[in-house]
Specification:
Shape: globular
Radius of gyration: 25 Å
Mean pLDDT: 94
Number of helices: 13
Helix content: 25-40%
Number of strands: 16
Oligomer: single chain
Largest sheet: 8 strands, mixed
CATH topology of the largest domain: TIM Barrel
Strand content: 15-25%
Length: about 425
């Protein structure tokens, strides 16, 4: 009995102590909080996977791991709000490419989390450049491309990486989906594309109405069955539910405002068409690419439509991109449009901070350029309760630089994801060490 009592006391002492709590302290750096300005020679206290304190005069707990960031710049982990990381490894090897479902131009039911390769070599390549969070999204080939997810770039499998799924429904306008499906004899013109899209949204409205009717009839049936037998309606039969449709279900969520719709469009008239369709069916619109967005910045600001701008170095390489200018992000920002800077790829997501640097070179303030790859994508995609800034309660996703993050010669020295330092190595660094 005595031994059993001692054992119980031992367990209580262990589980009531802080021995199982992971505590990390980052001290001495110049902290760009993205929410409360810059803290010089600051301290960040991280407990387990979240930030607990940020400031200057913070007591460092005994036994905490300490990372000295003196002389360095500390920012939230960088966030690319449109990528195909984990969906495309080697472009010329089809077995490694899962960016687009080619069976139909309308595929709202497909989800990137069902194809995401958590062991992709592109993850560490991207991560060591300070990018801790991505939107994993389907490509822009289909009229309705499917569902994206916000993921962290650390974890053994996709379930450990998910921050939000689904994050958005993706639809596409303009040359890309039209040309892809013209070759497959399914769509010939922009008119045909938009008609197919609108018809699918009408089907989603009808699907929602069927379920609303079923739920009303089921409520009536249950209420009737709860009555005494002599008061029940004898001819009232249990209603049959409608047949489920995964694609229409997610479209109903978009119509109801539960998730946003990200629409890719470049040419001014395609952007305006996307706005018209969003207003017709009532979904919350986020514009992707927006090569000509600067031409209608006032409309985008008035309608509170954010833009995922990028790549900043987009060239006038297609008819719909003839209006491309490097000042696009700066003009949108000056007009009051919320922007996030994106790379829109897989292999080049590592260049996110350099894209932001180019935008700053062409008129975007340095402060906004940094927020456009940290705080703003988190806000636009609705995950800012967890990500985008360095403040108490947020997930401890942090990047540390030995200089200005937007400068090409600056190196990323440390990356923290959910309070844990990730290895600063990739296939390329291992090859370099082997053969140098």
């Amino acid at each position: 009995m005595k031994n059993k009592l001692l054992f119980m006391v031992f367990l209580i002492l262990i589980f009531s102590s802080n021995s199982f709590a992971w505590i990390l302290v980052i001290k001495g750096g110049r902290i760009f909080t993205m929410s409360e300005g810059i803290i010089e020679d600051g301290i960040i206290l991280i407990e387990n996977n979240r930030i607990s304190e940020v400031g200057k005069d913070i007591e460092i707990p005994e036994g905490a791991s300490v990372l000295d960031a003196s002389g360095k710049i500390v920012t939230p982990g960088l966030f690319d709000a449109f990528t195909q990381i984990g969906l495309k490894e080697i472009s010329e090897e089809e077995s490694t490419v899962d960016i687009s479902e080619k069976s139909d131009p309308l595929t709202p039911q497909v989800r990137t989390i069902d194809a995401f390769n958590s062991q992709s070599e592109l993850i560490p390549v991207t991560r060591i450049e300070g990018v801790t969070t991505i939107l994993s999204a389907p490509a822009t080939d289909n009229v309705i491309a499917g569902q994206s997810a916000v993921l962290e770039l650390a974890g053994e499998n996709v379930n450990e990486m998910i921050i939000k799924a689904p994050a958005a429904l993706h639809i596409n306008f303009g040359e890309k989906p039209t040309s892809v499906w013209r070759e497959r004899k399914k769509i010939e013109t922009r008119m045909g594309l938009v008609s197919r899209l609108r018809q699918k949204f009408i089907e989603a409205e009808e699907y929602a109405a069927k379920w609303t009717k079923f739920e009303t009839e089921m409520d009536e049936y249950i209420a009737n069955m709860n009555l005494p037998k002599n008061k029940r309606k004898k001819d009232l039969e249990e209603p049959e539910p409608p047949e489920r449709d995964l694609g229409l279900e997610i479209m109903v969520e978009a119509i109801n405002g539960e998730i946003p719709v990200i629409a890719s469009a470049n040419r001014k008239d395609d952007i305006l068409t996307a706005i018209n369709v969003s207003e017709e069916f009532g979904f919350r619109l986020i514009l992707l690419y927006g090569t000509d967005a600067y031409k209608i910045a006032d409309i985008l600001e008035k309608k509170n439509i954010p833009v995922l701008v990028g790549p900043i170095t987009t060239q006038p390489s297609k008819m719909e991109k003839l209006g491309a200018i490097y000042e696009n992000a700066a003009i949108l920002d000056r007009a009051g449009v919320r922007i996030a800077i994106i790379t829109s790829g897989s292999h080049d997501v590592r260049d996110l901070r350099f894209q932001a640097g180019i935008a700053a070179q062409y008129g975007l303030s340095i402060s906004t350029a940094l927020k456009a790859i940290t705080a703003y994508p988190a806000q636009i995609l609705g995950v800012d309760n967890d990500l985008g800034s360095i403040e108490p309660g947020k997930l401890a996703n942090i990047a540390i630089f030995d200089g200005d993050p937007l400068q090409p010669l600056t190196k990323v020295t440390d990356v923290i994801i959910e309070g844990r330092a990730v290895p600063m190595e990739s296939m390329q660094t291992r090859l370099y060490e082997r053969y140098k």
